[in-house]
Amino acid sequence: MGKFKKVFRGLPDPRADNAQHELADILFIALAALLCGAETSSDMAEFGLAKEEFFRQILVLKHGIPSHDTFSRVFRLLDPQAFAATFRQFMAAFAEANKLDLSGVVAIDGKALRGAFERGRQATPLHMVNVWAADARMVLAQRKAPGRNEVAGALELLGLLSLDGCIVTADALHCHRAMAVGVLERGGDYVLALKENQSSLFAAVKRRFARAGKRSVAERLELSTHDRREHRRATVIRDTTLVVEHDFPGIAAVARITSRRRVHDGRAKPPVVRYFLLSQYVPARTLLRIQRSHWTVENQLHWVLDVVLDEDRSRTRKDNAPENLAILRGFVLNILRSHPSTTPMRRKIKRAGWDNAFLIELLDHMR
């Protein structure tokens, strides 16, 4: 608990000076509650009361367990940018303590919190931008997209990260000059999907592949999964001329991946062709691995947040609470993922709720 308080000591407390419960205690109980399957402020308060004897072994709790109103008020008032900064500080210390390598493929992608919408505005829920370390399977950073503008949110996040040794991947929404500059300035490289939203650049890349020239080619047949088989062929060509011709910083190579899928009944789907801009030349075989890693942001982050942690069903929607709880769920996912047990995540959550010794093991593991 001392190390937890050390990390959160600098987090500004938004409450009045006469607040009875320490901010770090509230956040610690909330984190433990989410680790055991809690979803709302009421859940956190109920969990605290049920585990009060357990928490008194760790916390002072001069005024007992905070009420659900206290949990709700703290998360509604807490500055999410300050909370996110503390999250990044925590992740740096967490990775160092657990010898985690956060370099490699770093995927940037947005995710809507479907239940976090104001009354009468169901079509415009809160939109978060997540930064995902694919190799370590860790959330590195999160931020609300201002005005649901995912591009602006991603650029804000880039300015807060160190990307030395990282290859940033993103879909075509983020294929623009500002993103390229942001990645390069932070010491990283990029692999950006290119579509017709960059019409002249897209046409130039297609023409480049129509011409003869030296290129790296690799093919991969994915094993049958989800009732389908997929064959992917990657081609990478060195090309630095596009930097000047299209004023796009850092382009060192262009790439194409052609995917062919065959579903379980034997029918072949039409081939899908995708193009990419690379700030560093990599062989085609490496590109296939990078793009495969990028999609873990969907099936190992977003899917887990929705299916295991019930993020989309959360109806927390007032003030800063949705964003702050999304950040806290990032804490939870990282702790569960880094625990060495091969037990499925959902069972870890249940066991933590049933077994105080295992809950202590999880909390101790975040040192």
- Category from helices, strands and their pairing: alpha+beta
Helix-residue proportion: 40-55%
Mean pLDDT: 88
Contiguous low-pLDDT stretches (5 residues minimum) are none
Radius of gyration: 23 Å
- Total strands: 9
Shape: elongated
If you consult CATH, what is the topology of the largest domain?
Answer: Transposase Inhibitor Protein From Tn5, Chain A, domain 1
- Main sheet: which strands, in order across? 3-2-1-4-5-9-8-7-6
Biggest sheet, open or closed, and with what strands and sense? 9 strands, mixed
Which CATH architecture of the largest domain? Alpha-Beta Complex
CATH top level assignment of the largest domain: Alpha Beta
Beta-strand content bin: 15-25%
Please give a quick description of this structure.
The chain has 367 residues and is α+β, with helices and mostly antiparallel strands. Helices cover 43% and strands 20% of the residues.
Structure description:
The protein is of the alpha+beta class. It folds into two domains: 2-83 and 315-365, no CATH class; 84-303, Transposase Inhibitor Protein From Tn5, Chain A, domain 1, CATH 3.90.350. It contains 15 helices and nine strands. The chain has helices at 2-8, 23-35, 41-50, 52-55, 68-77, 80-97, 150-158, 177-185, 199-210, 241-245, 284-294, 296-307, 321-338, 345-354, 356-365; strands at 104-113, 126-133, 138-144, 166-170, 189-194, 216-225, 228-238, 253-263, 272-278. Helix 5 (68-77) packs across helix 13 and helix 7 runs parallel beside helix 8. The termini are close together. The mean pLDDT is 88.
